[in-house]
Amino acid sequence: MFIIVFRLGNGAMSGVAFMTGFRSMIAGLANVWIFAMLRMHIPFQSAKQERITRYVAGYLLTGILFPLTVPLELYIDIAKSHFTFLQRLPGVLLQGFWMNSLVIVTHNLVILRFEKENIELENSRLKAANLESANLLLKQQIHPHFLFNALSMLKSLYKTDIQAGEAYLSHLVNFLRASLAEPQSRASRLSDEIKLCNDYLEMQQIRFEDALHCTIDLPEKVLSTGFVPAFSLQSLVENAIKHNEATEASPLHITMYYQEGRIITENNLQVRKHIDSQSGKGLINLVERYRILSGDEVVISQDLHTFSVSIKVLSNEGSDHRG
Question: What would you report as the CA-atom Rg of the chain, rounded to the nearest whole angstrom?
Answer without folding.
Answer: 37
